[in-house]
Specification:
With 428 residues, the chain is α/β, with parallel strands linked by helices. The protein is built from 8 helices and 18 strands. α1 packs across α4. The protein binds zinc ion (ZN).
């Protein structure tokens, strides 16, 4: 039995629902909510008090800057595929319990907070800044996530303010906390420790959330192996896997991570050099669209290294709290011409809920079997979109029974939820 360390993403008020991207405009457009023009603006904690465990402020800042550069430099097959740049604004000075509320927007544990009017995600402390806080000893993590949370949570991050401009919803502020208690040089039950190289994978993951990336379940089987002590497939574990499994491996973006950021912020080279496949996931009747199906395209000759996924029905509008939006579309981009891919689908693990969820459904869609569709598909020219014609069907028909009753009407809008804090055994 082992405890696992969780990454958390921040939870948001309806009507914003996370999806392949961490946020989708479910109110109006059904599109990903992104930083405008791919410009991610951040403000880092600074000063002598801004240490991160055993790291000085300068060292922590250098790590963060370096990992932002790594995300920005995402490339596939030698082509720059993501158009993301970072702009660092004024440093924050030192942040601790005494001035945390000036910088971080949250609903304290055990308190009930009023829902904010959209487009504010939570809280009303719009500051014009996007703080990245270095929690030196876990006290900030405990203050935000609850007492003792700092023993299991390495960090948490996400957008916090979104604003509509010319009809399009953009992220205008984000926030992140990195929990330095894990790298303070003390290793005991009340103060767990991981090597800085491992913790770096957690930083890289959280910065992915700030950019707008959601979690992914690609290569769940490799994770299960790893948890059983077989690390032979560690490199197959994506950065944005919901759990901290192997920090060093997760510090290296997987193909799925590369495709994810490139799909959100595509460079011209991404659109013109790679293919995509589009299809729809259905219930067993082959006619009723099904949301929340993890659809995976995997290179037939190297499936662990080159697999990428998309959860059906991620782009939708309306309020469907039970994963029953009539939306089953999926689109998988970043596919290489003349490479044969299999198309697979599977349920998202029921273990992934709350702050570890893979959207658009929390809890995940269930009651259907995983399957590898017969045949393979491939595109023959760059920029192609596959919808029909290859051997593998582009439609996914699951074994999930057809609903016998129409879904109940959506409930009124909810207030902001909280991240669920989980320290438990992972049972995929
Ligand atoms: Zn995460």
């Amino acid at each position: 039995m082992r405890a696992l360390f969780f990454f958390l993403i921040l939870a948001f008020a309806w009507p914003l629902r996370a999806a392949g991207p961490i946020l989708v405009d479910t109110e109006v457009t059904g599109l990903s909510v992104l930083w405008k023009d791919g410009v991610v603006r951040v403000n880092l904690e600074s000063g002598a008090g801004g240490t991160l465990g055993s790291l000085s402020n300068d060292e922590a800042v250098a790590l963060v800057r370096g990992f932002f550069e790594d995300w920005s430099a995402t490339g596939i097959d030698g082509l720059a595929t993501a158009a993301v740049v970072f702009q660092e604004g004024a440093p924050l000075g030192s942040v601790d319990g005494s001035n945390l509320d000036d910088h971080f927007t949250y609903c304290p544990p055990g308190k009930s907070c009023p829902a904010e009017d959209p487009p504010f995600v939570s809280g009303s402390a719009r500051t014009g800044q996007s703080p990245i806080l270095f929690d030196d000893d876990g006290s900030i993590t405990d203050a935000i996530q609850g007492k003792g949370a700092s023993l299991s949570i390495l960090g948490f991050a996400g957008p916090r303010v979104v604003e509509r401009e010319d009809g399009v919803l953009y992220i205008t502020e984000g926030q992140a906390v990195l929990n330095g208690k894990f790298i303070n040089g003390v290793s005991e039950p009340a103060d767990p420790e991981v090597p800085v190289e491992e913790f770096s994978g957690a930083i890289f993951h959280e910065l992915g959330h700030l950019i707008g990336l959601d979690h992914t379940q690609v290569n769940l089987g490799s994770v299960v192996k790893h948890l059983k002590g077989d690390a032979s497939e560690a490199e197959a574990i994506p950065t944005m896997f919901p759990l901290f499994i192997d920090g060093a491996a997760q510090l290296t973006p997987h193909y799925d991570d590369q495709v994810a950021i490139s799909s959100l912020y595509p460079s011209p080279a991404f659109g013109s050099n790679f293919c995509r496949i589009e299809g729809t996931a259905f219930r067993a009747d082959g006619a009723t669209e099904l949301q929340g199906v993890n659809v995976i395209a995997a290179n037939g000759s190297d499936p662990l290294a080159e697999s990428t996924s998309f959860v059906s029905g991620s782009f939708f509008t309306g309020a469907f709290p039970d994963c029953d939006a009539p939306a089953g579309e999926f689109v998988i981009a970043g596919l290489k011409p003349d490479v044969s891919y299999t198309l697979q689908f599977e349920p998202i693990s029921q273990a992934f809920t709350g702050g570890s969820s893979v959207e658009p459904c929390d809890p995940p869609q269930k009651d259907f079997e995983a399957e590898v569709l017969p045949g393979v598909f491939r595109c023959s020219s760059k920029g192609e979109t596959i919808t029909v014609g290859s051997e593998a069907t582009t439609d996914v028909v699951t074994t999930k029974a057809v609903a016998v009753a129409p879904p109940p009407p959506p409930p009124p809008s909810e207030g902001s939820g909280g991240c669920s804090l989980v320290i438990s055994d992972f049972a995929p």
